[in-house]
Amino acid sequence: MRERDHGGLLAGTASADVTPPVGLWNVGARRSERIRDDLRATAFVLQVGSERLAIVSVEVIQLIRESVAAIRERVAAETGIPAERTLVLYAHTHSSPITRPSRGKMPDDDYVRVLEKATAGAVMMAAQRLVPARIAFGEGHIGFNVNRRRMTPGGVQMLPNPDGPVDRRVRVLRVDAVPAGVDAPLAVLFSVCCHPTSFPTSTATGADYPGAARRVIEHIYRGETKALFLPGTFGNVRPAPVDAQGRFRSVTDVELDRIGRALGAEVVHVAEEVSGIPREPGTVTPTWDGTGGLGAVHHDVPLRYRSVPSREEILASTSPFEQPWKEQMLSQLARDGRLPDGEPCEVQVMRLGPFLVVAIGGEPFVETGRAIEARLVATPGIAAVLVLGYANGSAGYLCTAQANAEGGYESAQAYFNSQRPGPYADDTEAAIVAAVGTLAQRLV
Hints:
The structure is a single chain. The protein is an alpha+beta fold. Helix content is about 30%, strand content about 30%. Helix 1 (about 65-80) packs parallel to helix 2, helix 3 (about 210-220) crosses helix 4 and helix 7 runs parallel beside helix 11 (about 430-444). It folds into two domains: about 10-300 and about 340-444, no CATH class; about 305-335, no CATH class.
């Protein structure tokens, strides 16, 4: 269904504190011992005529489908924004509490409930702050990310691969109130393609580089602006720092602050360029004032596991790394009599006038994001396509068929940590790309 031209864009933004107490299980089965920096849920609501949609980004490792449903239900009840028009993103910071069972550890249910309510609350506040607005789009560049899948004589290892696929663009949506009451945007949405694994496992809770950049952006604009992180398709891309042996390492607190300043400054640079000071003479900045309307559609794509282990195969597992997975699989077999052969992955497409936002519920590879963008960017009337992962529930790693053939952590080992029966089948990427194309046709 094609959206009608309503005209007249309204926008509002708000944020809520979602910092957990010390002592919860962080990613990597380590208890938090201190708070490095606060975690935030930042919301953005748009309205054209009677149509509204919401985007909210939360600085946590992930949100399961049940949490997303609870957030959407609360938002719908309080604001009238339908579930299919609410996009819930999670920054995927690895320095945050687990929100689903992982490596034999359980999430803190009380914290998860507070997290859901606070996230919905941010959307509700944003919906009450709508003002006439205009959106402009621009791009910058980063250099701190690298592909993390290197082929070695022993197979694919998690090592820097400077020749592997990577996306180093910084993509920025600047939202200004019209007419501007202050010399600062209402909101800045920025998308980067890099795993927030500056600290792969940590006893210090923090928001990693997305939070570091957010703080810089908001500081530069003197607190008049909300910065909202849009996670790219970075399933196989991470920060580049390595040790003396050439292996990935955690950054220091000082290094993280530097990354935050560099990224935050680049986002602000782009935001200033699209406000009327172009980088090159004659540059045309894509903008939107509500003309063409807005819309959102979503669909659950049924994904199949590549294989499902039998009871005998589960019992034969002896690796300590696999022990929590083994216990979970045996418990599920005893309870249900079988293991599932797959699970759904939500795909959502939003149209903001000349901009398309594609959101995929899991950890897609950078190649998948590029394939979707290339397919949609030539659509008449579309000036930019932002393809995001880590949205609307966590379906785990969404590998390409090539990655499945090559092996490596994402395609052959990660399912142990997420306690799934196995990795997904080779047609996963094709199914997701096809679903996105079908959904996009309904909006354009």
